[in-house]
Amino acid sequence: MKTRFSTRLIVLFCFWATILFCGCGDKHQHHPKTISVLTYSEYFAQEMITDFQMKTGYQLQLDLYEAQEEMINRLRTKGTNKYDLIIASDVVIQEMVRLGLIAPIDTNKVPNRINIADQFKKPAYDPTNTYTLPYLWGTTGILYRDTTISVDSVTYDMLFDSKQTKGNFSLLEEERSMLSMALLAKGFSANSTKTDEINQAVEHILHAKKDPHFIGFDPSEISKDKVLAKIDWAAIVFNGEAMDAINEDSTLQYAIPKEGSFMWVDAMTLSSNADNPEGAYAFMNYILDAQVGAYLARSVNFASPNKASSKYLNEQFKKNRVINPTKEEIDRMVFLRDPGDASKLFDAAWTTVKTH
Fold first, then answer.
1. 21 closest CA partner among 30, 10, 11
2. Nearest CA among 184, 176, 194, 204 for reference residue 347
3. Were 329 and a residue from 21, 67, 108, 256 both cysteine, which residue would form a disulfide, CB within 3.0 to 4.6 Å?
């Protein structure tokens, strides 16, 4: 759900692309191929760009998005032919299939698929492993600046109850995630599709918006930066961003609220109109390499679904509860399910949230 990309990265990319173009064999020198990947921001280490190009001969073009809804809208308006591979969250996979945005994967072209841990095989969002291969997995919780509040005692009231809010806070700029958190805060299932319960979740968020400490809806990366800069006291973020922040400021804490939250898997998918499907398969196979998978996980602070990567991850990483949640935290989390026809209810609810 994220590489630190900026103008510097574009310059770096061009520099290394030039070196590779000049230094590779005739095949790559005269016929350079590019694979275009649409992915969350903050989700790929800069060093891996060069490594991927040297190992596969493909140049890598990354296009970034911040939220699931933005990604799907971009694919529907700009066309799937602009991308070869799309990294998408589990909860939107079935919608992408229905919309014809992704195509079946020829897994025979991804031999490193054998490295996938059993718990990530045949997932609910793709039970026949037709459309996806896992990239990374993580959680969504609350990053906050208060060492007096134990992570085991945090509730959503920290954000939704003005009597308990101690400073500015941001909510997550992601429709399904934010509405599902509000459902949990009200005591409902995160996967509820009942109109009345969704409406109550909307009212709960609207009530929070009236708090003078509420400063907006932000992508996880921006919220993390605001907490670090002491603009926010608390914010909803993905655990990888939380870990980044804690690494910079050890007084920060990350919690899975007592009412629960959700885990997610971000998956690699093949664009339905991929111009370079072979390049997409090369990218999938590269990511599922044991050492690459471990490096990716360490560089972005998210957990790896690659069982072969475990031996390349140290015990400190594997026992870090922000990156790898405890059993108690896992027990109070769920995976979000595709709402099917009820997605219209969520769309309408989010419109109300954002316009009132």
1. 30
2. 176
3. 256
Q: How many helices (H) and strands (E) does the chain have?
A: 15, 11
Q: How many CB atoms lie within 10 A of CB 336?
A: 20
- The per-residue pLDDT for 246 is 98
Radius of gyration of the chain (CA): 20
Q: What is the mean pLDDT of the chain?
A: 91
Q: What's the CA gap between 114 and 141, in Å, rounded? A: 31
Query: How far, in Å, CA of 30 to CA of 102, rounded?
Result: 30
The pLDDT confidence band at residue 200, using thresholds 50, 70 and 90, is: very high
Predicted confidence at residue 42, as pLDDT, reads: 83
- Grouping H, G, I as helix, E, B as strand and the rest as coil, residue 69 is helix
Tokens representing 327 are 């059993």
Is pLDDT of 4 > 50? no
Report the C-alpha gap between 2 and 300 in whole angstroms.
Answer: 7
Token reading at 348: 């309408």
Confidence check: pLDDT of 32 > 90: no
In the structure encoding, which two tokens stand for residue 284, read together?
A: 């999938």
* C-alpha distances in Å from residue 66, one per residue of 39, 237, 271, 316: 8, 12, 19, 29
Greatest alpha-carbon pair distance for the chain in Å reads 68
Residues in the chain: 356
Q: What is the DSSP string of 133-183?
A: EEEEEEEEEEEE--TTS-GGG--THHHH-TTT--S-EEEES-HHHHHHHHH
The confidence score (pLDDT) of residue 332 equals 95
Instruction: Say if residues 286 and 55 touch (Cβ distance below 8 Å).
Output: yes
Mean pLDDT of 239-246: 97
- The 8-class DSSP code of residue 131 comes to S
Residue 150 CA: distances (Å) to CA of 119, 147, 213: 30, 7, 22
H/E element, 281: helix 277-287
DSSP codes of every residue in 292-310: HHHHHHHHHT-B--BGGGG
- Residue 31 DSSP label: S
